[in-house]
Specification:
heterodimer; A: Rossmann fold; Rossmann fold; four-stranded parallel sheet; globular; B: mainly alpha; Fumarate Reductase Iron-sulfur Protein, Chain B, domain 2; Helical_ferredxn (chain B); iron-sulfur (chain B); HdrC_iron-sulfur_subunit (chain B); iron (chain B)
Chain lengths: ~260, ~425
């Protein structure tokens, strides 16, 4: 972004990578895939790179409003300095925080999640599912991230990216507004769970198995970690793949 | 004449007592902090019509939804008949609407009877679901003796009231056929005609039954009215304002604390002068730190347990139960209210909602997934109470779990919840 600004250019959209997308190895791949999609359709975009900082989401959900607002105000200062108007995020938590909680602190942007970007490109005919891997005959299900689905009512965008594939989209018993959390939200990602009978991601695996899915799609780096661990937990790593909507789009188009 | 006087005294006493109890509940709710829910009245009326009046969130569980709908419609419509009973009671008339309404009256009474039967059957099924089938949703740590009895009292009272109503009609129907006294031929009795053969044939016995049921039914209703403020059944009234004052923002959005904004701004810019310097506690330790909306929700909760049955923490055996959060809030608020009545408004006992009612283990088990908020048929938000209590624990006490304190430290120092350097934030671009 700094480079573009120095050259006097303004990108169409700012890609907010997020902490997981920046540091988590698996999520880094998804970050690069989102970039591939942006390049493929010719959208000019920028990232903040080292100027990006955590949105403050996990601090806020854990009750540390001070830290959240410190993070938020720092980020808003950077975003406003670059006169950013439109943001796409690779994470539902960043999406929710910037879209809903930054406006009250002086950060007003049009914010979309990357599955909404993909849905828009499909609707405009700019993105198809051709030239890449075929998903024919593979049962795909979508795990709704809480902060995308219930949190913001985005249920159809990620499914639009799956519906154009040459395959069957199956729903789990608990889906859409009834979707079961992966267990990572509310800062649970950063602590051990409280004592109980089992872990939440293990509970979610019963839905995955019941749906007979071979691919579990999601749109959140934290769900990705929890679901991948869940699949490992039931020893089904060979049979069941966990993929982000961006990864599936890249595979289907051979990008 | 003496009957009329007794009726009027009972009616006035019931209305007075109910008014007094409602005023007390209102006083308790207003112990909460202010929050503005007056915006966008058009959207609020709409959501109330849809969710409260139309019960759209009930349909996720169709069996319960259908039976609840019978009881709800029955309750609302049979109230027209209660109006007639009231007028008859005050003026000593009998079936006062029968003349002015003509043939429509028969249709109405017939309709009431069918509804009464549906209410009765639904209550019997609900009773069986709780006590014979023992549905999991109706158990749990918070479902102690009182909540279980409360539910059974409500169902039993409704079954008795409907039985009395139908028996009263059956006796009336038989008296009409005998052309006895003032029992003019009026109404149609599709349901009670079926139970009429079970009643005695003698006119005076029938009259005793008819009068007995009439008094039992109306006194029962007035007593039930006064039971409401002590019971989970209060939802039949509070559901409407509670849904009207729903949160209209996306569920993922948590409030930004204005008091914190002031401090953060002052920290970033020493010349910043906050507009108001209201000294208040960060987050929630006791019920009086909650907003009036949180407190209204506590009184609205009917303990159906839809929230708890979809809570990922509860499903996997953790201590957290969103229903318990609401029930604890109401219990503590009732306690605070009783203290005020007994010892005056400045009385402080040594208890708080945090620790004495809700434990930290419960608070930290929440994934903030909003499943409980989505599931509630009357738009109650247990998550807000959980988050506010976390805020107190973290910001006033610095008592977050150690691993979360690590996460906070990382975020403060590196701008990420993990221990990675901010300088490495763009490294993803160099890998393939």
């Amino acid at each position: 972004m700094a480079q573009m600004a120095a050259e006097g250019n303004a990108p169409e959209i700012l890609f907010w990578v997020g902490c997981a997308g920046s540091f988590d190895e698996r999520a880094q791949k998804i970050t690069r895939d989102i970039c591939k999609i942006l390049q493929h359709v010719g959208i000019s975009y920028a990232v903040l790179g080292t100027e990006e900082s955590c949105t403050g989401d996990p601090a806020k959900r854990a009750g540390n409003e001070f830290l959240f607002q410190m993070q938020a105000m720092g980020n808003i200062e950077v975003l406003n300095a670059y006169n950013v108007k439109k943001i796409v995020t690779g994470c539902p938590h960043c999406f929710n925080t910037i879209a809903n909680e930054y406006p009250g602190l002086g950060g007003n942007y049009e914010v979309i999640h990357h599955t909404q970007l993909i849905q828009g490109l499909i609707n405009d005919g700019k993105l198809k599912a051709e030239g890449g891997e075929s998903f024919k005959g593979r049962r795909i299900t979508f795990h709704d991230p809480c902060y995308l689905g219930r949190g913001n009512g985005v249920y159809e965008a990620p499914r639009a990216a799956l519906e154009i594939l040459d395959t069957e989209l199956v729903e789990m018993k608990r889906c859409k507004s009834n979707g079961l959390c992966c267990g990572a939200g509310g800062a649970q990602m950063f602590k051990e769970p409280e004592p109980g009978k089992k872990d939440i991601n293990a509970e979610r695996m019963t839905d995955v198995l019941e749906a007979g899915a071979q691919i579990v799609a999601s749109g959140c780096p934290f769900c990705m970690t929890m679901l991948s661990d869940g699949v490992k937990h039931i020893n089904k790593e060979q049979e069941i793949k966990v993929l982000d909507i961006a990864e599936i789009t890249v595979l289907a188009n051979g990008l | 004449m003496i009957g009329q006087v007794i009726f009027i005294i009972i009616l006035l006493a019931a209305v007075y007592l109910f008014g007094k109890n409602v005023a007390q509940v209102r006083r308790n709710i207003l112990l909460g902090k202010d929050t503005d829910r007056s915006d966008n009245p058009a959207a609020r009326w709409k959501i109330m019509a849809k969710v409260a009046l139309g019960q759209t969130k009930m349909v996720k569980r169709p069996t319960a939804a259908v039976m609840h709908f019978f009881i709800y419609v029955g309750f609302v419509i049979i109230n027209l008949e209660v109006l007639e009973i009231m007028i008859d009671g005050i003026f000593g008339s009998h079936r006062v609407f029968s003349k002015p309404l003509g043939s429509l009256y028969g249709l109405l009474i017939g309709g009431f009877e069918v509804l009464a039967l549906l209410v009765l059957l639904s209550c019997v099924v609900f009773f069986a679901r709780r006590n014979l089938l023992k549905l999991k949703r109706f158990s749990g740590t918070e479902m102690t003796t009182w909540p279980k009895s409360d539910a059974n009292y409500i169902l039993t009272i409704e079954i008795l009231l409907m039985t009395a109503f139908l028996t009263m009609n059956a006796a009336d129907y038989k008296l009409q056929a005998l052309h006895f006294g003032h029992y003019v031929t009026a109404g149609s009795f599709p349901v009670s005609a079926l139970i009429a053969p079970l009643l005695p044939a003698g006119a005076s016995a029938l009259e005793t039954i008819e009068r007995g049921c009439w008094w039992f039914h109306i006194i029962g209703i007035l007593a039930f009215l006064n039971y409401l403020p002590y019971s989970k059944h209060f939802h039949i009234l509070l559901a409407f304002p509670n849904v009207y004052y729903s949160n209209l923002e996306p569920k993922g959005e948590f409030s930004n604390m204005g008091s914190v904004t002031n401090e953060v701004k002052a920290m970033l810019d020493p010349s910043f002068v906050p507009e108001t310097t209201e000294v208040s506690r960060f987050g929630v330790k006791d019920v009086t730190d909650l907003t009036w909306k949180n407190l209204m929700e506590a009184y609205t909760c009917t303990e159906c347990g839809r929230c708890t049955s979809v809570c990922p923490a509860n499903i996997t055996g953790k201590l957290l139960s969103p229903r318990k959060i609401m029930m604890d809030t109401r219990d503590r608020l009732t306690e605070v209210g009783n203290n005020i009545d007994k010892h005056g408004k400045d009385y402080i006992d040594d208890k708080t909602l945090l620790d004495n009612y809700i434990t930290r283990e419960e608070l930290w088990a929440c994934t903030t997934c909003n499943a409980c908020v989505e599931a509630c048929p009357v738009n109650i938000n247990p998550l807000e109470i959980i988050t506010e209590m976390r805020r107190y624990v973290v910001m006033e006490e610095s008592q977050a779990p150690a691993s979360l304190n690590n996460m906070f430290g990382n975020m403060e120092n590196n701008g990420a919840p993990w221990k990675y350097s901010q300088a490495d934030r763009f490294n993803w671009a160099e890998k393939e």
